[in-house]
Design goal:
Blueprint: E1 6-9, H1 13-24, E2 29-33, H2 40-47, E3 55-58, H3 59-67, H4 71-77, E4 80-83, E5 85-90, E6 96-99, E7 113-116, H5 118-129, H6 132-135, E8 138-142, E9 146-153, E10 157-162, E11 167-170, E12 172-175, H7 182-186, E13 191-207, E14 214-220, E15 223-229, H8 235-239, E16 244-252, H9 253-259, H10 264-274, E17 282-298, E18 302-303, E19 306-308, E20 314-315, H11 323-344, H12 353-381, H13 389-404, H14 406-417
Parallel strand pairs: 1-2, 1-12, 2-8, 5-14, 12-19
Antiparallel strand pairs: 3-7, 4-7, 5-6, 9-10, 10-11, 13-16, 13-17, 14-15, 15-16, 17-20, 18-19
Keywords: FAD, Flavoprotein, Monooxygenase, Oxidoreductase
Domain FAD-binding: 6-368
Pathway: Cofactor biosynthesis; ubiquinone biosynthesis
Length: 419
């Protein structure tokens, strides 16, 4: 089985999920993560704090995490916030899109998805990585960086050298190491980038009114404002549930950088006003941070004996919360294609050009459409051109008419779920 060995660089959510899928299929895999390993006490210290960031996991991503045995840990932790409705609206315009309306049980699945903090997902995956049913096929190396990659030819694959001098050979090398991917750079794969000249302010807020298991997104002239349900983690939260939310507030870069310098109460008041007090006043605000927004896509997802997944391959605007979900679909498609070609070849084909190209043909066009769709939506609602009266009229009429077409709304909800 040595010739079927797979080396995954990057132990985040996408990389760890792929490692578990391959190990479950009894395929030897090594996972390298540059971050030092955490013991359980270190994990609990991280999990003891509410993270302002959440991932909006689609049903497809939840199904994949269930398949690898991680979702069961997340459910047991009670650190997830399922949502059954999505509300999208624009201020100063007509039209509102409401997915999963409780008045129309046929409109969408009962649960559209779940909001989960990044550390909660990572902890569940790392718990699974050490469990007996996968440990025979899985090697995890934490706390070491890859410093060199040498291609040895199509039959042998890559020799990877770590910062401690260890060399590892692998038939297939997987880059799951994020937007600044070392693997992608070493493979000489370029990226197409789009800078939105926007910055997102991220924080956790406690609102006067409960979120009622609804993910909200206001389309503002300055950018999108997302209010996403957070799990209740303290005893006080559980007595008065559904009042904590994660905020992703997109603003022009200069405006965001100026706002982030203000005190917490000032930011909270500005945020409540920007939402037109959709959930009342903001009682508390925590973990305020900011990050610049840009989209990017690798010019190729594959090379000889090498494949990119997740953020190493693509990064999209966060306005629809689909970044991680696209990466999880990468994992699903890649694993299925690897196992399909391995089986039909009688156990001789692993990570061949044919297999990898099939994965690229399946995923890259889909991810491109998603990236450009999010960019178009951002253009349609934010910026000076978006405020031109003809654009406003088209946007208002479009949202109003779409909201009245129930089959189309059901289709959108199904697409958002990923299943």
């Amino acid at each position: 089985m040595k010739n079927n060995h797979t080396l995954i660089i990057g132990g985040g959510i996408v990389g760890a999920t792929l490692a578990l899928k391959l190990a479950q299929n009894k395929m030897p895999v090594t996972l390298i993560d540059a971050r030092p390993a955490r013991d359980e006490s270190a994990w609990q210290a991280v999990l003891g704090k509410r993270d302002a960031r959440v991932y909006a996991l689609s049903l497809a991503s939840i199904n994949l995490l269930t398949e690898v045995g991680a979702w069961q840990h997340i459910t047991a932790s009670k650190r997830k916030a399922d949502y059954s409705q999505m509300q999208v609206w624009q201020l100063n315009g007509m039209g509102e899109l409401l997915f999963g309306d409780s008045h129309d049980q046929s409109a969408a699945p009962e649960i559209l998805g779940s909001m989960v903090e990044p550390a909660v997902i990572e902890h569940a995956l790392w718990q699974r990585l050490s469990e007996d049913d996968v440990s025979d096929y899985l090697t995890v190396i934490a706390g070491h960086k890859v410093v060199n990659m040498d291609w040895l030819g199509a039959q042998q694959g890559y020799r990877v050298t770590l910062d401690n001098g260890t060399a590892i050979d692998a038939r297939l090398l997987v880059g799951a190491d994020g937007r600044g991917s070392f693997v992608r750079q070493q493979a000489g794969i370029g990226v197409d980038t789009l800078d939105y000249n926007q910055t997102a302010i991220c924080c956790a807020i406690q609102t006067e009114k409960p979120h009622q298991a609804t993910a909200r997104q206001a389309m503002l002239p300055t950018g999108t404002l997302a209010l996403l349900p957070l799990a209740d983690i303290t005893d006080d939260d559980k007595v008065n549930p559904q009042h904590w939310q994660s905020i992703v507030w997109t603003l022009p870069r200069n405006q965001a950088l100026a706002l982030i310098e203000e005190d917490d109460r000032f930011i909270a008041d500005k945020l409540a006003a920007a939402s037109h007090y959709e959930l009342g006043a903001i009682k508390q605000i925590e973990s305020i941070a900011s990050f610049p927004l840009a989209a990017q896509q690798a010019k190729n997802y594959v090379a000889d004996n090498l494949v990119l997944i997740g953020d190493a391959a693509h990064g999209v605007h966060p306005l629809a919360g689909q970044g991680l979900n696209l990466g999880m679909l990468d994992v699903k498609v890649l694993c299925e294609q690897l196992m399909h070609d391995f089986t039909r070849s009688g156990g001789t084909m692993w990570g061949s050009n044919q297999t990898l190209r099939h994965y690229e043909r399946s995923r890259r066009p889909h991810n491109s459409i998603m990236m450009h769709s999010f960019s178009a939506l951002n253009w349609l609602f934010a910026g000076s051109l978006a405020q031109a009266r003809p654009v406003q009229q088209i946007r208002n009429e479009g949202m109003y008419r779409v909201s009245k077409i129930k089959p189309l709304m059901r289709l959108f909800a199904k697409q958002a779920s990923g299943v």
